[in-house]
Task: structure prediction
Amino acid sequence: MIEDSQIFVRDVMMPEDEFLKKHEQVISVWPTGKEIDLEEAVAYNKSLPKHKNMNWMLKKHKAEHKTGLYPRSGTPIIEQEIELLKGMNEVGVCMFPFTTDSYSRNMRFDMAQQALEESIRTGQAKLNGYPIVNHGVKATRKVVESCYGALDARSSREGQAIIAEMAFASGISAIPQSMFGWVAGYDKRATPQECVQTAQYSARLSGYYAERGHIINHATHGWLANGVIPTYVGIACQVLEALLSAGQGAKSFSPMVNFNGNMAQDLGEFRAAERVYRDKLDQYGHADCEIPGVIANQSFLYTFPRDVGMAFGYINYTAMLGALANVPACSVKTIDEAIGVPSLESHKQTYRSANWIYNVVRQQNFQIESKDIDIEEKMCYMAVSAIVDRVMELGEGDVAVGIVKGLYSGVLDCPFSISMHLQDNTLGVRDLHGAVRYLEYGNVPIPEEVREYERGKIAEREAYEKRKMSYKVSIADFFTLAKGTLIDPIEEIDYTEAKPNEYADAIRENPPTVITGTIGVDSHVIGTKLISRVLREDGFNVVALGAQNAPEEFIKAAQETDADAMFITSLYGMAEQDCEGFRDKCIEAGLGDIILSIGGNLGVGKHEFADDEVKFKKIGFDHVYPPESPIEKSIEDLCKDLEARGRLKRGTAEE
Result:
């Protein structure tokens, strides 16, 4: 537990003079910041039609019992972005989460500028989103004014302040207030206190606009779980984000609740979410804050089907649940989500399909009564309430202090998080019907009644499958939705013990050292954590760098440990830029013979793996693997390479 004397954040509204001084610092980080004038920006926003305001749009949908599409979009070239938004208007989209690119999110504006210029020169996207800071206010207002509907600018911690400034001044009326998303999925090194400070600044900026009559909506994402885990901590963290932001004057919040796949559990948790959200805002002194509606979010960061037919099934199942949950907005991924940055046509196909579901189902105003849903709603409400109240107790009523203590102590925890400051002591699995349950609670204060219920559900699956639930099952359950199931069919369960590694003796006697991690500013940490765990279980010495590593960090770690190999993963599509000259840098550092392997989604947009393989082998990688390549294959290749170098000798312990 962190000491009280080490905590410097407090739930106190930033004085206006202090805020304005900080504002000047924030907008000075890139030349386009000079285009921001707060008073002019307030007046501009108030002059826009109502449909440009996300708070108004969500309330309108809620009052009319409609579910609107809430898709992600973002492409670097302004003309293409305008074409994309207009194209989505044609299929009924009027709420646009507006994705900024990864370089901008991490304040690498010089790199974003280079990629933007290359995108304009070639007409091909070299960024995985819209570089709002590089484009500036004047250009972005053209985008905002080009379509019908409201926009929501997506960011992460490092870029949040300047992106919020640029977005609000441009007429974008919403932004995620997702400090737990940063902790869980986007920022490896930032301390919990730094995340609190960033969230407080963007909330204070929102409060500044609210004081002058313009309401900005905050979609609270909560904890972006990277593994199979109930939504309890996620919803609790959304409540805490709202409480923290309300303390800075923000006035509109929408919990963004994820699906896990089981209908009873998902619908129960959606019903619980808004109720507990409202109750906790009222309980802790923020009854004046609005909740224009819960936003349904397709899923946690589960893998997505690469098959188009299965992708349509995944999307439409999500749309059906969103419609049955009676939410005003629902986010679905596009049919080519697993391939790369989606095309305009895939957006249109996806949203025509989802809108068909929304329109037909919502017109019926169908109400589901189910004992199973009622039980799941009760369990969720109890668990979320217990977590929020424990955090507030830790902070002695101060939500900022409570959040910091909660994160360091593991009261707030989830598996496979990116942050180096968290406990990572929880684990979940699915029950016999695909609902998600805790297997390991760590220090999360889940009430005993909820635990007893979950233990019973897990016991049912163990009895049916005749095996104990474990880490291995949890990982398998993570991939099931992409295969069109909630749990693997019993006939597909492999009860045989793993085949012994034929290099096991050699590895045990003199363990090779492998550096693992994601490269560049890629925050997708699940793959590298899985690889690291399997390598350790096979006896390798693993130096796990986690996510977001510059090439120099890999090279330094390899030098310091005399490493034999590097396993690099990348999922955000910009690995080619990140890895340029990588083998040459290794040679310069005296690592010319090190084995280099890379895998994942290695390009922006639709592309062929064969082309990726050629590119990265030219850069100097020994092995290049496509998405969903078996970990065992890469380890087998590594062992053969080590044998060829005289580092390992074939032969098992049984011999």
